Amino acid sequence: MEILGATAVLLVICAFFLLLNTIQVIRRQGKGKLPPGPTPLPFLGNFLQLRGEEVFKSLLEFGKKYGPVYTIHLGMEPVVVLCSFDIVKEALNDNGDEFGARGHMPLLEKISHGGHGVVASNGERWKQLRRFSLMTLRNFGMGKRSIEERIQEEAHFLTNEFKYTKGQPVDPTFYFSKAVSNVICSVVFGDRFEYEDTEFLRLLGLLNQVFRGFSSVWGQLYNIFPKVMGKLPGPHNMIFKSVNSLQEFIMQRINMHQETLDPSSPRDFIDCFLIKMQQEKDVPQTEFHMQGALNTTFDMFGAGTETVSTTLRYGLLILLKHPDIEERIQKEIDSVIGRNRAPCIEDRSRMPYTDAVIHEIQRFVDIIPMGIPHKVTRDIQFQGYFIPKGTTVYPMLSSVLHDPKQFKYPDIFNPGHFIDENGKFCKNDGFMPFSSGKRICVGEGLARMELFLFITTILQNYTLRSPVDTEDLDLTPELSGFGNIPRPYKLCFIPR
Questions:
Q1: Is this structure's pTM higher than 0.85?
Q2: Over the stretch 138-178, which tens digit does the pLDDT of each residue have?
Q3: Does the residue 204 lie in any domain?
Q4: Is residue 318 part of a domain?
Q5: What does the entry list as the binding residues for heme (predicted)?
Q6: Does 18 or 354 have the greater pLDDT score?
Q7: Structural domain of residue 86, as residue ranges?
């Protein structure tokens, strides 16, 4: 009898959630027809139909079944997914105002303290912080000779560091993290760290944990069931501990800057933010306050470190797998640059093959496959479907970077995707690793400079060798969630 009673209670609960789910769907369809999609279960939504370690591949497969615009339920929340270059471009570029807000992502909302900073914010806050961040980055050299010189200097420190490996196998992870992070640190904090600095290594380890945590099954579970996961123990809580430690360090730096601030001579990004705070101290509802300073600086530091360094690490793994491509890049380096001067950005226009390889690395590694979620700012009819205001939208960047209409061999690493019949570099509209439209990455220009200068400087000075047979090198990601993270590997830097 007890079992029958428990079963009856369970059935009543399931019926309640099913009814609640049905009411929500009917309400959303009241003004029109939501895009089709797999049938959700009460409370769980379509969670059981997603492959935990490769969520974005599950979403791409749904796109093949339901079309390039479809609805999936992450828990009880309906999310519209956009697949293919044409659809993503129409949404982000042609309808940029309507699709330009940041969507619901509980992990991001928690670490941004409810939507502070550039990445997670919306509305007037986002407009002001993005405008300020772009202007400040430009003032400190982004896109100019001064930032190029900082990257060249860091590339020199990096290649010098490889000398100490004496051709022995090393894990490149933190070599690249240290070099890439020091570029953004010089802009944000006003100086670089020594490579052996234990505090610096601790920070980089924390950033790596956060990026991996976002891409893990636990991170995805939190995004789908935040209220439940927020009350449970588990590895997802390490994300928040790591973020707290990083933000404590940044807060210390901000306080140090406050004590030595000279408004007439800003030294870095933090100084500029503090000066803006002073200017707007009497402005009601100002977005320039201590919480904004903390989260905006965190965005710059985190985004400016992990995505580029992971792309570099993945890129060198690809070059290990394809030594013929590495050799051809080195021939172009020798022809255009030689061995006696540092590579510079001006060289890129005369190095079409190298430029094509770097673009293909970014396309192939597909570093943020699902993109960061967007949200529609008003009720909109899109592709014949009704999408209500406030609906979260995932523009699947992976579907763009692997669209067979844009790239002849979408699942194969082929620099020919960016080279025309005359051997010249050719652009491809499907190249969207930085997203597109109003929410395109603030640091796109800096990231592209870093990838070119670091890769060419490394290959100018070293030949890459794998301690294992290249046939055994696996290019599939170790983790595929928020980000694609390469499998661990070692390589040898052999002086040329």
A1: yes
A2: 887 765 568 899 999 999 999 999 999 999 999 999 999 99
A3: no
A4: no
A5: 441
A6: 354
A7: 1-101+385-400
